[in-house]
Amino acid sequence: MTANFAKKNSLRSIPAMDLLLAMPEVEPYVNDQGREAVKKALGEAVERLRKRVLAGEDLSPSAESVFQIALPVLTERSLGSLRPVVNGTGVVIHTNLGRSCLAPGAIDAVRSAAGRYSTLEYDLSGGARGHRSDHVEWLIKEAAEAEGALVVNNNAGAVLLMLAGLCSGREVVVSRGELVEIGGSFRIPDIMAFSGAKLAEVGATNRTHLKDYRGAITENTAALLKVHPSNFRMEGFTASVSREELAGLAREKGLLFLEDLGSGALADLGSLGLRGEPTVARCLAEGVDLVSFSGDKMLGGPQIGVLAGKKKLVDQLENYPLLRALRVDKMTLAAFEATLRLYLSGKSGEIPTLAMLGQPGEALKKRALRLAARLKKILPPKSVSAVEADDAVGGGAFPAERLPGWAVAVAPPEGKSAGALLAELRNRPVPVIAGARGNMALIHVRTLLDGDDRLICDAFAAISGRE
Q1: Which three-class secondary structure state does DSSP give residue 38?
Q2: Which CATH number fits domain 86-95+355-463: 3.30.460.80, 3.40.50.300, 3.90.1150.10, 3.90.1150.180?
Q3: How far, CA to CA in Å, does 150 sit from each of 131, 155, 222, 310?
Q4: Do domains 86-95+355-463 and 102-351 have the same CATH topology?
Q5: What does the pLDDT look like over 350-395, one tens digit per residue?
Q6: Which residues contact 147 (CB under 8 A, 6 or more apart)?
Q7: Do the beta carbons of residue 317 and residue 168 sit within 8 Å?
Q8: Model-wide pTM > 0.70
Q9: For domain 102-351, is the CATH number 3.40.640.10?
Q10: Strand, helix or coil at 148?
Q11: What is the pLDDT of residues 114-153, one digit of tens each?
């Protein structure tokens, strides 16, 4: 009876909502998130506190205890969800961290387009309505040496539009070795079915020959489709058919030859030590009629999907109803136009993705040593060292390519694991996303931007109590 009385008395002492909302500590959150959102968070905290009281875990509830329960939620909402982070993983095109960073000129273009009215769909010469895609199509044609081009929201949309607009109701022949699934459960067979085209699989998983394609062609075949395998790779007893051979077969049979190039590169990356990925121009030169690719991977621009190739096919797709559902907003177009202009003007080195990939080993080593020296002033010197490490391109491109790089290794304090240290780094106002090796946190310097060294040092200072 006494225990029940104590619980009931404790429940009565939980403050009313008006008192909670009037707390000085709560006011900044009300100003930031609005009264109703904060009221809901506090209400959920009150319910959690009630359960604690009934379980005998807390018999001294107060306004402060309610606030402390609600504080993690209120704090996280104040910080925002889409937040900048420090990429210390060494993965240049990190899908989970936003893929490519934009060049300064592209960022300026986005800011300009976002803050003012613009010529998005306005023809200045005629004073009439224009076409939003005109801003970038001519640049794509120049950079990719293509007859025609158009853009949509992403490469998945480009593949869908290509198949729906050109092949719906008819068969599309694809090698079984290219029926891949990539991040986000994007599967070629699913996109094919959604487009209305009919999938005709040929060959074996590891070996497909020209005769397999030839044998699958019927009166209802519309196209041959080549698909980039993304991160999937096969080694050993394998065989595939070249673009030139597929292009010849397509011409012989009066079919379209289409390609989903995935990441897509406008420039030859051989000078960066990266080989094996064809440029868009090369694909077209080898006989592909229409190529789809992404703008935010190897190209180094914003998320956008591009179709480049034969003008008659592009013209056909520009009149297809699905295009409107996939069209691109003004800020993306502004960023993409600025990025493409860097390629045409010979300034592609200003694109962060390409700049990161091209960093020489000695420069990476020097940066790792500088960062290590700064961290040794904050942490026990023996816990910090500059080490060689392997980086990665990311974005499904060059998955087997090793990028020799440098990193700063930080050993956690005694009694703490590397995983716990990584979690603390992620929980900073500007999260630091790092890798691990053994029981050490590993901060790869290749993917660090200007100012990131300070953020990393601030994070470790806070974690070690030396803030």
Answers
A1: helix
A2: 3.90.1150.180
A3: 11, 12, 21, 11
A4: no
A5: 999 999 999 999 999 999 999 999 999 999 999 999 999 999 998 7
A6: 141, 309, 310, 311, 314
A7: no
A8: yes
A9: yes
A10: strand
A11: 999 999 999 998 898 988 889 999 999 999 999 999 999 9
